Amino acid sequence: MADNIIITGANQGIGYYMVEKLLAEGNKVSVLDIKTDNLVKLKEKCDSLIYYKVDLRNYDEVKRAVDETAAEFETIDIAVHNACKCTFERESKTDLDTYNDVFNVNYFGALRLVKCVIHYMSAQKKGRVIFTSSGVGVTGFMNISPYSSTKGALEALAKCLRIEYAKDNITFHIMHPPLTRTESASPLPVPEEFKALPEKVGYGLARHINSKRFIICHSLNQKIQTLGCYLFPTKMGDLLSKLTANYTETNEL
Question: I need a labelling partner for 83 at 20 to 30 A (CA). Which of 6, 33, 47, 50 fits?
Fold first, then answer.
């Protein structure tokens, strides 16, 4: 059965390939993104796509896009917050404005989306809301504390809202993609061969978008890795940070 889906942050990377797969499977998709150049090309291939140029830091822009999507699709079955901003610097070199901005996109962007879609889902007594998280939101990682903190906050938000909206048959979920070859992850000093292909991750997440599990992964291997992060968060955070630091030092010699 096809769904009507709204997703933020899907002009490129994992989100783009999620949309491509969802459209191929017969769903209708509305994308909210600050950039739309790739969506323009995708729209030429598929009439079931609509998109809006939206800054998720602006509530009025989000609400207008959601309301227009609801009018076009009649229902909103699934809402996915995939947009994110990531900075790469130590806390001591990161000012408060940067933390505020990253939270404004990653966390409050998700909350704005929820506040705009939730009354439609409550009225129809069904719906799914999914936040894209990250293993570093569970384990921590070096030099990305603004980003990591927002992902941890999204995990807590999803857990709270799944309880609050259970009576309306609205479920909340977390997507856990692996480290992927995307523009946002490109500054990380990690070998490219250790990063997953965005099309493989996006297609896999699209296939599991209706999973009943709270945590959604694109593959069994990623499920196992994510479970390890939850079971041993600080140990995994220390290990991954040390491996990255060692790789950086080796390549600087």
Answer: 47
